[in-house]
């Protein structure tokens, strides 16, 4: 199948040109199992440089030191746990670290309430198991198993959504760096380069809290929400451009004023106060993360190109905002109406078209 028909390419394919250029110009020591040195991985993640004439784009916009600590952790025998609010780029950073270090970010276990221990370790093709009995051909290897035997990185997304017994299946793997297969009398040792990156959402902290034993196997990095509006705007603009290109949305990119308005609304409702701190606001039930702001603008572009002239209008933004902000009809609709009348309405002519479109939709 042509890459043009794939909805979302993994990072190592999407940014293959950058990775190849960094590997070709990398003169620092490369750890066993890695494709490039830690310094080259850092350049790949933080960007703002060139390699063999290829511009290296920033994959994570934030505290450089947190990226350095994350990379250094993967050099040790400890796994990496990225924690933060929804939309703080935990999964994005996890994927790009795996792509740069081992060239494969696809060994992923998605944590849910339905995730089982077999998805962490291994399972069986039951038709073959009945026909031949326990044998290597009947085994279905998990992403973690495959990462161990190939010396690469496995990723566990939303680990706190997994049941405790599923989480605890990782304890022996991370401690002994071996996976036991008693049915075959096998002990599978992890090859050099193996590590694990997990992510956890602070909003889900009480769902299935990790045991102290498992936490000790991880080095925890807390990814903060963007510190200021300028940083958040840069993240949103960069990701919207990448996302719209991947989706072939042939609409005009949102202007700086549009991005600023959306980011301002999200930051204020998230904090429960206006940016200047002078006015308290009723927060809404949604998270209103940076990731949601990116999705909102991409959705507005889709509306503009499908049913408009290709430029995002106030009505496009209002429609997307209504769905993003009003999650709980009773509580959020009232909070949103108060924000419109007490804050947005008073911000002058630049905000007036968006205010009118939002007020019309909110009734």
State the main characteristics.
Rossmann fold; 11 strands; two-stranded antiparallel sheet; 363 residues; alpha/beta
Summarize, please:
The protein has 363 residues and is of the alpha/beta class. The chain is built from 15 helices and 11 strands.
Describe this entry's structure for a reader.
- A hairpin with a 2-residue loop joins β1 and β2.
- The protein has two domains: 3-223, P-loop containing nucleotide triphosphate hydrolases (Rossmann fold, 3-Layer(aba) Sandwich); 229-362.
- Strands 4-7-10-3-11 form a five-stranded parallel β-sheet.
- The chain has 363 residues and is α/β, with parallel strands linked by helices.
- α10 crosses α11 (256-271).
- The model has no long low-confidence stretch (mean pLDDT 91).
- The chain has 15 helices and eleven strands.
Give the SSE string: HHHEEHEHEEHEHEHEEEHEHHHHHH
SS class: alpha/beta
Count of alpha/pi helices:
15
Low-confidence segments, given as residue ranges, are none
CATH topology of the largest domain: Rossmann fold
**Rg, alpha carbons:** 23 Å
Percent of sequence in beta strands: 5-15%
- Average pLDDT, rounded to a whole number, is 91
SSE diagram, text form:
Layout: H1 11-14, H2 16-24, H3 38-46, E1 49-51, E2 54-56, H4 64-73, E3 79-84, H5 90-102, E4 108-110, E5 122-124, H6 126-132, E6 139-141, H7 143-150, E7 153-157, H8 164-176, E8 178-181, E9 186-189, E10 195-201, H9 212-215, E11 218-223, H10 229-246, H11 256-271, H12 290-307, H13 314-325, H14 329-342, H15 352-362
Parallel strand pairs: 3-10, 3-11, 4-7, 7-10
Antiparallel strand pairs: 1-2, 5-6, 8-9
Helix pairs in contact: 2-3, 3-4, 3-5, 10-11, 10-12, 12-13, 13-15, 14-15
